[in-house]
Amino acid sequence: MGYRIALNFEDGATRFIDCNAGEKVLDAAFRNKINLPMDCSDGVCGTCKCRCEQGEYDLGDEYIEDALTEDEAEEGLVLTCQMQVSSDCVIAVPVPASACKVKPAEHSGTVSSVELVSDSTIIVKLRPDDPAALGFLPGQYVNLTVPGTGQHRAYSFSSKPGAEEVSFLIRNIPGGLMSTWLASEGAVGSPMAFVGPQGSFFLRGVDRPTIMLAGGTGLAPILSMLEVLADQGTEQPVHVIYGVTKDGDLVEIKRIEALAARLPTMTWAACVADPDTGQPLKGYVTQHLTDEHLNAGDCDIYLCGPPPMVEAVRTFLRDKGVEPKHFHYEKFAPSEAVREAA
Fold first, then answer.
1. What's the whole-model pTM score?
2. Got the DSSP string for 183-240?
3. How far apart are CA 282 and CA 273, in angstroms?
4. For the chain, where do the domains classified as CATH 2.40.30.10 start and end?
5. R_g (Cα) of the chain, nearest Å
6. In the Cβ-directed half-sphere of 261, how many Cα atoms lie within 13 Å?
7. 19 with 3: CB under 8 angstroms?
8. For residue 141, what is the enclosing H or E element?
9. What are phi and psi of 26, to 5 degrees?
10. Rounded to whole angstroms, how far apart are CA atoms 203 and 140?
């Protein structure tokens, strides 16, 4: 029996490896040609220390406390030279991928559809040439190369991992490099190269009430997360607030409704900043984030949107004196290939 392990590096690059039952993670990484940090490989030095963010495992009792203290182990720190997994896992590696001799993963595919779903949003779907080789964590992004330019743009998956067809929500920017190309007659059916996955903004285990906040096309990674949660199910309440500027910016509403029908613990709301909106909820996401949702800080928050939105939420939480158990966010700006996540 084997397990799938996602190694998420300090620079946001992610690689997936297979690990056999009873095999040490460090050995599995080497077998997959990834040189994780190590020195002794005997549980003595602590050089291979990483953090397990999701999954089940056993560390045995053959390492010394100088390498990994009891407190560190309780916090999820692990020694990969001793770690044996009993489920699929996500492991945070505290060095850049390049330090482990890991090259950026390159993929290719074909554009299967381009749909202008609003004045501000384009839904693009690709069929990867090798779907089995494209692993990613729900919430992550790739860098799509704009054909004929050599330039790339970063977009989050709105589809779930493992799908035969992957999708993205792309902001329609007048005169934008990607937007202009997608509007061309030759876009559908064209080959497209991309690199990734990337990013430390991804779904962790849902162990407490969870809030998901999306602004504009920041809805994409939230949709990917919700697809996975709808498949897996959860007993924890999940509340989604989706905010946009204008009524016409609202997209994928039917899909959100379908996800809520599949995930009984999910509630959601959409709000529009335009005071002349026809939507029942006006204003910004912070105006509809209640004390009940925040649960006195015993909650996890996932937030993806433009920088002003992210800063507004952070200020809102600070002013209320609420510190969530976990707060994962990603900022993005139009035409930028680099995203800031925490």
1. 0.89
2. TSTT-TT-EEEEEEEE-S-------S-EEEEEEGGGHHHHHHHHHHHHHH--SS-EEE
3. 6
4. 106-198
5. 21
6. 6
7. yes
8. strand 141-145
9. -60, -45
10. 9
Angstrom distances, CA of residue 110 to CA of 34, 71, 124, 129, 274: 29, 49, 11, 7, 37
Q: What is the CATH number of domain 210-341?
A: 3.40.50.80
Q: Which structure tokens are listed for 248?
A: 């016409």
Identity at 3, one-letter amino acid code: Y
CA distance 248 to 244: 9
Q: How many residues does the chain have?
A: 342
CATH of domain 106-198: 2.40.30.10
The one-letter amino acid code at 149 reads: T
Question: CB–CB of 243/284 below 8 Å?
Answer: yes
Query: Can you name the CATH fold of 2-100?
Result: Ubiquitin-like (UB roll) (3.10.20)
- Token pair for residue 190? 């064209």
Integer Cα distance of 226 and 212 in angstroms: 9
Cβ atoms of 192 and 111 within 8 Å: the answer is yes
Q: Is the peptide bond before 197 cis (omega within 30 degrees of 0)?
A: yes
pLDDT in tens, 218-261: 999 999 999 999 999 999 999 999 999 999 999 999 999 999 99
CA distance 120 to 122: 7
